[in-house]
């Protein structure tokens, strides 16, 4: 399991870990070893599209994008299975988009199977296992909302423990500055990735194209970036802007699925370990 601990560190370095609080002394030490800017061929963009599973706007347009991405699919919803099967058939990665308690909003808005901080340990475990079982082809997990739950160490220890048992990696959507996910994932040895940019937190073409421009800047600096977009209210805007930007972005970087980032971090780290 020590190897996975190293992998988590490698992913932090690879994505330019910028957590507030900076509890990871190993990450800051590693910053002095930052490699020189990578050539275009070795730069990576991992697009993650959240909120599949409910027949949301833009579902088809996203699935047909001419690049491989990662589809985050909500469990227990009318098109959960259908979207997971379609995404898998088109070569995209499938991950579970697990609803987790936010700081703002009512628990009743969360839908079926949400992870609430008020739940006892056994019920959290049961819900995480059921969510994974409900999304076919899932190889990872990320959080839908979760600004309260991802800051709760007891809750995240259970969620990440189940991920470990099922062989899933975790993508921290980073909806909280107080996230405990990096700390707990490292302790448990769960491969971890983190979101760098939300593409469509404001639903307008102008905003999404601005975020895509930001993404290009980050790629040039860091070499690897994870960006999250959504089906639903911004689905057609985001899929349209991405489709337009893809040819230009491809001159600067390669689009990858999250599993490829996990795998390449593992290989890169393996090269360094004697
Ligand atoms: Zn979501």
Helix content: 40-55%
CATH class: Alpha Beta
Bound molecules: zinc ion
Shape: globular
Q: What's the order of the H and E elements?
A: HHEHEHEHEHEHEEHEHEH
Kindly identify the CATH topology.
TIM Barrel
Largest sheet: 9 strands, parallel
Alpha plus pi helix count: 10
What does this structure look like?
- By secondary structure, the protein is an alpha/beta fold.
- The protein has a single domain (39-272), classed as TIM Barrel.
- It has helices spanning 2-14, 25-31, 59-63, 80-89, 121-134, 153-166, 181-188, 205-222, 235-250, 258-272, and strands at 44-52, 70-73, 93-100, 138-145, 169-172, 192-194, 197-198, 224-230, 254-256.
- Strand 3 (93-100), helix 5 and strand 4 form a beta-alpha-beta unit.
- Helix 1 runs antiparallel to helix 7 and helix 8 (205-222) runs parallel beside helix 9 (235-250).
- The longest helix is centred in the C-terminal third of the chain and has 18 residues, at 205-222.
- The radius of gyration is 18 Å and the shape is globular.
- The model is unreliable at 1-32 and 270-274 (pLDDT under 50).
- The protein binds zinc ion.
- Zinc ion binds next to strand 1.
- Zinc ion is lined by residues 50-51, 97, 144.
Write the layout of secondary structure elements.
Elements: H1 2-14, H2 25-31, E1 44-52, H3 59-63, E2 70-73, H4 80-89, E3 93-100, H5 121-134, E4 138-145, H6 153-166, E5 169-172, H7 181-188, E6 192-194, E7 197-198, H8 205-222, E8 224-230, H9 235-250, E9 254-256, H10 258-272
Parallel strand pairs: 1-2, 1-8, 1-9, 2-3, 3-4, 4-5, 5-6, 7-8
Helix pairs in contact: 1-7, 1-10, 5-6, 6-7, 8-9
Zinc ion binds at residues 50-51, 97, 144.
């Amino acid at each position: 399991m020590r190897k996975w601990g190293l992998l988590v560190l490698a992913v932090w370095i690879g994505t330019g870990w910028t957590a507030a609080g900076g509890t990871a002394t190993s990450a800051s030490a590693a910053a002095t070893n930052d490699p020189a800017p990578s050539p275009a061929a070795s730069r990576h963009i991992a697009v993650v599209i959240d909120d599949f599973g409910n027949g949301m706007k833009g579902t088809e347009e996203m699935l047909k994008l001419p690049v491989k991405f990662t589809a985050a699919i909500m469990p227990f919803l009318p098109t959960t299975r259908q979207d997971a099967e379609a995404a898998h058939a088109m070569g995209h990665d499938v991950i579970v988009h697990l609803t987790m308690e936010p700081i703002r909003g009512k628990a009743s808005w969360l839908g079926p199977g949400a992870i609430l901080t008020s739940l006892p340990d056994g019920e959290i475990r049961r819900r995480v296992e059921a969510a994974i079982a409900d999304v076919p082809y899932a190889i990872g997990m990320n959080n839908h909302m979760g600004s309260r739950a991802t800051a709760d160490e007891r809750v995240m220890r259970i969620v990440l423990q189940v991920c470990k048992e099922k062989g899933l990696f975790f993508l921290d959507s980073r909806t909280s500055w107080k996230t405990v996910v990096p700390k707990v994932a490292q302790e448990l040895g769960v491969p971890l990735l983190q979101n760098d940019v939300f593409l469509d937190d404001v639903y307008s073409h102008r905003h999404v194209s601005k975020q895509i421009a930001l993404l290009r800047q980050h790629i040039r600096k860091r070499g690897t970036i994870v960006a999250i977009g959504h089906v639903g209210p911004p689905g057609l805007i985001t899929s349209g802007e991405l489709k337009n930007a893809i040819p230009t972005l491809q001159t600067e970087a390669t689009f990858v699925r999250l599993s490829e980032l996990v795998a390449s971090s593992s290989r890169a780290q393996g090269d360094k370990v004697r």
